[in-house]
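During the no-cost extension, the postdoctoral fellow (Dr. R.K.) reprocessed legacy sequence entries with the updated structure-token encoder. One reprocessed record is reproduced below for audit purposes.
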Amino acid sequence: MNNYSIIMLGPSGSGKTVFLASLYKKLSTQSEAGFFLKIDSAEKRKRLNNIYTQIAVDEKWPPGTRYSEVSEWTFTCRVQNPNDLSIYDACSFTYLDYAGGRITAETDEEDESSEFNEKFNTADALLGLLDGQKLCALLNKEKLGTVWAVNELRNMIDIMQGSNKPIHFVISKWDIVEQNYSLEQIRDRLIEIDEFKNLVRLRNQAGAPVRLIPVSAVGKGFAISQPDGSMQKTGELPKPFQVEVPLACILPDMIQLMIEELIKKRKAEQETPIEVKPNLGISEFLGQLFAGGLRMVQELLPPKYQFADDVLKNLIEWAETPAQEKIAFAARRTEELRREQAESLKQVENEETALAHSVNCFKTIQNQLSYLFPVSELRVL
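Re-encoded structure tokens follow.
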């Protein structure tokens, strides 16, 4: 079973620990998402459940990760067949939660170059938590927002630019943000920041996806922002919103990045440019570009991205669909994707078919993101 690692970056108070607890709460049982998650130990399961209980009940919010602590959380993506209730593992995701203090605290060079760099260099994706309250302060032209933009965001971007992997910027506390601003307004303000714009532009040129994903660990109506910046709970039960979306985007975005890299490398290797016929599907396009087609592409990919032919083709066709096309047809695709998901669930009988079904689930979730938030895939012209 393949494992994919995600580096979580975010200053203290941005909500990384709360995000993980909410992710596990929402996906600990199989639901409309079509799969569920199992944490790698009973101790961590209890810890996440305790954190979520604290979120729902206690007056205080859970403490952040200590500076010296690097928390690893491995979730196995599992699928339960509805016919006989058999459960099969599909793949696993390891979230590496680095203490928020590492983003802004002054440390010596040796500390920054040891364990962090080793994990960072082998990660499959980066997840950057953007504090929704501080984003609101930025748009309100308040000092808190200015400090966040010139210090915390800048330091996060400095770290991110050392990677060529997909980046998911996750806006936490969306239940608070959406009361005043749209995602388009947030995007436009972030693009005005030179460091942010440059990061997105360069990754666009390289074919590396960058997303802006609104999430709420607790959902609308659970807490109210106070004048002092604190959050007061209302007594409502939490209802996590879109916390599963970043996870669902990992495999499609990594496939998109690797296919783009293979295409560029293949074209650069040719002394004579390859003439590719127009209006070809991605499978036929790869067939003209690579002798052996999909089979050759399969062999060129890293081992943990060498899926069964139908799974790889499914991922490639979805990942290589232009963003504007995904947005334009998101509503129409909803029922089609749900049917594919329902059909693949019936066929789950081993790890391979569980992964195939999970990929269909990921596509459905990503399609919903395109439908609800058309500007979530960041582009700088």
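The CA atoms of residues 266 and 367 lie 30 Å apart. The chain has 17 helices and nine strands. The remaining legacy entries will be reprocessed before the final report is submitted.
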